[in-house]
């Protein structure tokens, strides 16, 4: 799959003030999904998923509780879910998912992050068709064969099961996310290193050194925007 999921997560969390930025973004996402449905994760699968993902980033309980309490309190703050698609240097492709309470501001900021770093915005659908929505679940303490056996016994399908450094990473259809996680929990897995539904590029590309430096600067600029929740791309950064 070309991705080292734990390394990617650690890189995101280690940049300057990125830990607090990640926590703030989770706060917005938790508030939005709690407001859209029930503020109880057992009655709201979308909220349950976000909280599972938040655990892998060690989001503090007080941030989670504050976001859920805000939704319970009937706040009238509304957010739009937006997806932008664009291109970077040398045929690189990028998808940007955002939650915003000011669409014009976010569109302007995303366009500027692309434009100032050698990229440009595309129209809807210009990039997304080259990516597949995929559930990615990582764990430690078991082998790929162990996980395969667990999933087979639970009659749960996976696209692929790979060993990446000290972790096993399961790739599955998005609607199998909870079934995979439950099967693993029932087999004694209590913590996950990764628990995400992401957009995986069907084909990754490698950029020459100068283009990669410019591309990474563009990705950093996009990820640093407060309204941006996720950035997906088709470049193998060698992490």
From TrEMBL:
Answer yes or no on keyword Cytoplasm. yes
Question: What GO molecular function annotation could you give as one example from this UniProt entry?
Answer: DNA binding
Q: Which organism is it from?
A: Cytobacillus depressus
One Pfam family of this chain: Transcrip_reg
Keyword list, A-Z:
Cytoplasm, DNA-binding, Transcription, Transcription regulation
Where is it mainly found? cytoplasm
The record, for InterPro entries, names: Integrase-like_N, TACO1_YebC-like_2nd/3rd_dom, TACO1_YebC_N, Transcrip_reg_TACO1-like, Transcrip_reg_TACO1-like_dom3, Transcrip_reg_TACO1_YeeN, YebC-like
| Top-level taxonomy | Bacteria, Bacillati, Bacillota, Bacilli, Bacillales
Name of the featured protein: Probable transcriptional regulatory protein F7731_18670
* Gene3D superfamilies, alphabetized: 1.10.10.200, 3.30.70.980
Record family assignment: Belongs to the TACO1 family. YeeN subfamily.
Question: Cellular component terms, GO, for this chain's entry?
Answer: cytosol
HAMAP family for this protein: Transcrip_reg_TACO1, Transcrip_reg_TACO1_YeeN
Q: Where in the cell is it found?
A: Cytoplasm
Q: What GO biological process terms are annotated to this protein in UniProt?
A: regulation of DNA-templated transcription
Record keyword Cytoplasm present: yes
Q: Where is the TACO1/YebC-like N-terminal domain?
A: 3-74
The chain positions of domain TACO1/YebC-like second and third read 79-235
């Amino acid at each position: 799959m070309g991705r080292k999921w734990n390394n990617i997560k650690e890189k995101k969390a280690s940049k300057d003030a990125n830990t607090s930025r990640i926590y703030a973004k989770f706060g917005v996402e938790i508030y939005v999904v709690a407001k859209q449905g029930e503020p109880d994760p057992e009655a709201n699968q979308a909220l349950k998923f976000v909280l599972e993902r938040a655990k892998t980033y060690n989001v503090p309980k007080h941030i989670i509780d504050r976001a859920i309490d805000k939704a319970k309190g009937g706040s009238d703050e509304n957010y739009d879910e937006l997806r932008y698609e664009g291109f970077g240097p040398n045929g690189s492709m990028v998808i940007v998912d955002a939650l915003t309470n000011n669409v014009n501001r976010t569109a302007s900021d995303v366009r500027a992050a692309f434009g100032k770093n050698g990229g440009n915005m595309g129209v809807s659908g210009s990039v997304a068709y080259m990516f597949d929505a995929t559930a990615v679940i990582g764990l430690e303490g078991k082998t790929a064969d162990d996980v395969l056996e667990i999933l087979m016994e639970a009659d749960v399908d996976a696209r692929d099961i790979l060993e990446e450094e000290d972790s096993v990473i399961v790739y599955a259809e998005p609607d199998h996310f909870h079934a995979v996680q439950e099967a693993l929990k029932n087999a004694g897995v209590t913590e996950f290193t990764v628990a995400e539904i992401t957009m995986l590029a069907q084909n990754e590309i490698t950029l020459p050194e100068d283009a990669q430096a410019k591309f990474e600067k563009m990705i950093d600029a996009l990820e640093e925007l407060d309204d941006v929740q996720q950035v997906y791309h088709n470049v193998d950064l060698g992490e």
